Amino acid sequence: MQAKQPEKKWKAGVLGATGVVGQRLVQMLGDHPWFDLTEVAASERSSGKTYAEAVSWHLDAPIPESARNLVVKGLDPSLDCDFVLSALDSSVAGSAEEDFARAGYPVVSNSRNHRMDPDVPLLIPEVNAAHLDAIPRQQKNRDYDTGFIITNPNCSTAGLVLVLKPLADAFGLEKIFVVTLQAISGAGYPGVPSMDIQGNVVPFISGEEEKMQLEPQKLLGKWDGSRFVDAGIGLSAHCNRVPVVDGHLECVSVGLKKIASLDEVREALRNFEVGAELASLPTALKNPIVVLDDENAELLAARGFLKPRAAVAERKLAEPVSR
Ligand SMILES: NC(=O)c1ccc[n+]([C@@H]2O[C@H](COP(=O)([O-])OP(=O)(O)OC[C@H]3O[C@@H](n4cnc5c(N)ncnc54)[C@H](OP(=O)(O)O)[C@@H]3O)[C@@H](O)[C@H]2O)c1
In this predicted model, what pLDDT tens digit does every residue of 308-319 receive, in sequence order? Predict the structure, then answer.
């Protein structure tokens, strides 16, 4: 089945549009075939200004023309849009997102506040689209009418779980041990003080290891019709901040339930395909995992020249240890 292009474009709003994540959303909506960006919202510091005046723009591409002159609004849930994407600071995201959902807006959030709520889908569409079945229960529980909340995972969790999914399906997962090397853009703007990160590696990111140990359990678990059932995987995460602007690297050791050869692992990763409906969406990839064969390709990926959703460097796939 192919996803059907809407007859008219949907109107999109971005909450937290002036922040680092919000800017990326604004950029992606600037030229979207299905959505028109009609509203941007942020704090009182920004509201009343045009978007171009309010934002401290950090992306390589210029501010989209469609966004430059939008007037930044506050967090009153009376925006002229069909749904909102939220990139609000977590100090305000929790209640603001609930207000918008209660007022009838579908809310898709990048913030951590509602990720682990028992009736809120934590979603990587390629991994657990079936968790969207929880929405009617959420609306009933919370007395929402047309509104609801969906969240996406922490950035380092997203890359990890996308790669774990085909391994979980093919072999089952027992234990995961992951060490991250995370870019400074993940800390927002102005983020980590330059004197802390220049020429340094910071072996601590507040709350990150907890998120990486919890979120995959929900993502790889199941919605059983009334609640999310965890995947029950043993998971240990160590998170480090490194002086790289964009792109997180993760070194992952995986204990599989079924013994598999390196070739079988490689094939499972390579052959991972999303369904036809998802693949036909404007920004989706049919094969979101790229397995890199040689050292040169791996170096290019590390520099950001190859941009899959998740790249697995094959050279570093160690032969399984027999148990
Ligand atoms: N899922 C992921 O992959 C991922 C990755 C990184 C971050 N995040 C999450 O995404 C969110 C945004 O991160 P970021 O790095 O973009 O942060 P950021 O650069 O600090 O931006 C925060 C945004 O929230 C707004 N804001 C702050 N206080 C507010 C208030 N009291 N009322 C209304 N708006 C307020 C800011 O508006 P002003 O400019 O007006 O202050 C700004 O637009 C955070 O919750 C973060 O944890 C998710």
Answer: 556 665 545 555
